[in-house]
Design goal:
The chain has 11 helices and 13 strands. It is of the alpha+beta class and 333 residues long. It has 2 domains: 40 residues; 287 residues, (Glycosyl)asparaginase (Glutamine Phosphoribosylpyrophosphate, subunit 1, domain 1). The protein starts with a helix and ends with a strand. The structure holds glycine (GLY).
Amino acid sequence: MKRRNFIKKASVTGLGLVAVSSAFTSCDETLEKKEASIVTSKPTTPLVIATWDTPLAVETAAKVLQNGGSALDAVEQGCRIEEANEEGQSVGKGGLPDREGDVTLDACIMNDKGDYGAVLGVKNIMHVISVARKVMEDTPHVMLVAEGAEKFAVSNGFKRENLLTAAAKKAWEAWKIKSEYKPIINIENHDTIGMLAIDKNGNISGACTTSGLAYKMAGRVGDSPIIGGGLFVDNEIGGASATGLGEEVLKTVGSFLIVELMRQGKSPQEACEIAIGRIVNKPGKDFKNFQVGYIAVNKQGETGAYSIHEWFSYNLFKDGDNKNIKSDYFNKV
Ligand code: GLY
């Protein structure tokens, strides 16, 4: 049976992607690379896509690209805008704290070579996306956590500062009265900026930064800084990023899944829809009280987005236009 037909048949008969992947040898991996390069045509650049209504972050990233900068510089600079935006209560300074009142940040970044850097549970440092980049570029490691990450940041010139703003402290004090921990589906509770960009050379990079779930347990880390969860980039295929309840993204390795589906020929839109399907179609899964949203871009510059519930949107900079677009979603009842 020809490989393409097998893949088609496998997906129709419900065989999982894992089974499909494991069925092939390294010889097939070579074939896979050839397939990827056959479908590659030059995308319209610059292109930037980011979760939620993040026009300034996307505009900043687009400017980097328009000035000839790399996709890596673009996603870093774009994410820094949201990290410094004190109004946003889900990323960087102004992020809502954990249940003990500490703001802890998670971030990761991937370049077009497939390199990855991440920091998890970092206090007192605003631009964790830049710390993640330093981990990727200046250490032999891919992840630093908590105090170690903070010390590394400070030793690299990052400034220690209080990330808990008066507004976030007030919200936390109000929450403490009942201390109810319920992830709520609405736009105010959105979290995480995930951003993907394609530069003038057609190279793709991605970044993801968050303060995580509001009032999370101390020490809790979600999907955002985890490779394949909150972010995955394969420069031959495309990239994907996630927002929403990190536990559900991690259990399905959502961003990696989307990129692998694109590798098998799915469009970014189809891939995002299948990844949401992996969550909501689990037997007995009650998805009414949590949200997950994905964005994706392929090497040709086609984009996709899909969420479980309404209210997820994304910003797309393409053909010189920066637009906020409402995502399609699963739960239409
Ligand atoms: N998606 C962000 C988090 O769950 O922490």
